[in-house]
Design goal:
The chain is an alpha/beta fold and about 280 residues long. It is built from 11 helices and 10 strands. The strands form 2 sheets. It has a 6-stranded mixed sheet, sandwiched between helices. Strands 2-1-4-5 form a 4-stranded antiparallel sheet. The N and C termini lie far apart (about 45 Å).
């Protein structure tokens, strides 16, 4: 059953340029969806429609059946679909970690004992329990992003939308955030990840490619990344392992193209060494 649905979603900023054009997408509860696109493609604008930060110029967006243009349901929509932004400094408000995680809960009127429990659970989920009393400004970029995620998780949303949350992180920080997202997804939370990292998109169960405000591709990662030429034509790459398979094909080796990860790549290389291709 779809928990997010867009119907002919169109959006234009004040200058009249159409950023999104007739987007029709359904995302089922429990999915892990990555959204790809070059800078200016409309992917971040699309993300901001999923919890009513932006409203359609025309068309509709529904979150768990709620119309995002219905002002009376705005609070319920944002409790259902939480948002994590690229720069955690724009999301962290309090000076102490546990106070920041509790901030939204206080405004939701959550009872103190339940608030304490939610904060503790959220910090444990992101591996930051030992930092609960730390000053937020002393945290690393990766730690701040984990706190931003925990603040959203504490609200118990059914959907978490993340707009390039690893863009400012080093590889270790990126891997840590991706691990947390998989754990959240395994706990039933729908994940919508806006990213420009192909290896992150390859970890999703579904990849949507947006180009010039329109959906160009929408399928499982193995099928999306087989369109290497098409992706290249719009300024996107493919995961390194997939790129290697294409180069081997060009050199005359009949290796499979549906290879995304290092783990999938290793046996192909072993077979290649043993002259099986």
């Amino acid at each position: 059953m779809s928990i997010i649905k867009t119907e002919n979603l169109c959006f234009s900023y004040d200058e009249g340029r159409e950023v999104l054009k007739n987007i029709n997408i359904e995302i089922n509860e429990g999915e892990f969806v990555a959204v790809l696109g070059h800078n200016g493609s409309g992917k971040s604008t699309f993300a901001k429609h999923l919890n009513a930060i932006l409203l359609p110029t025309s068309g509709k967006v529904f979150v768990d059946g709620m119309d995002t243009s219905d002002e009376e349901r705005l609070g319920d929509i944002r409790k259902t679909a939480g948002m994590v932004f690229q720069n955690p400094d724009n999301q962290i408000i309090a000076t102490v970690v546990e106070e920041d995680v509790a901030f939204a809960l206080e405004h939701m009127g959550v009872e103190p004992n339940e608030m304490r429990q939610r904060v503790d659970e959220a910090l444990e989920m992101v591996g930051m329990s030992e930092f609960s009393k730390h000053a937020t400004h002393q945290l690393s970029g990766g730690q701040k992003q984990r706190i931003a995620i925990s603040g959203v998780f504490a609200m118990k949303p059914r959907i978490i939308i993340l707009d390039e949350p690893t863009a400012m992180l080093d590889p270790k920080g990126r891997a840590s955030v991706m691990k947390i997202l998989h754990e959240l997804n395994e706990n039933g939370i729908t994940i919508v990840l806006i990213t420009h990292y192909m290896d992150e998109a390859a970890q999703a169960s579904r990849v949507i490619v947006i180009n010039e405000g329109e959906v160009l591709l929408d399928d499982e990662p193995h099928y999306v990344f087989q369109n290497a030429g098409l992706l290249s034509s719009i300024g996107l790459d493919v995961p390194p392992s997939t790129s290697l398979m294409f180069k081997l094909r060009e050199s005359g080796f009949r290796v499979p193209l549906a290879v995304l990860t290092d783990e999938e790549c290793v046996p192909v290389i072993e077979d290649l060494i043993n002259n099986k291709y």
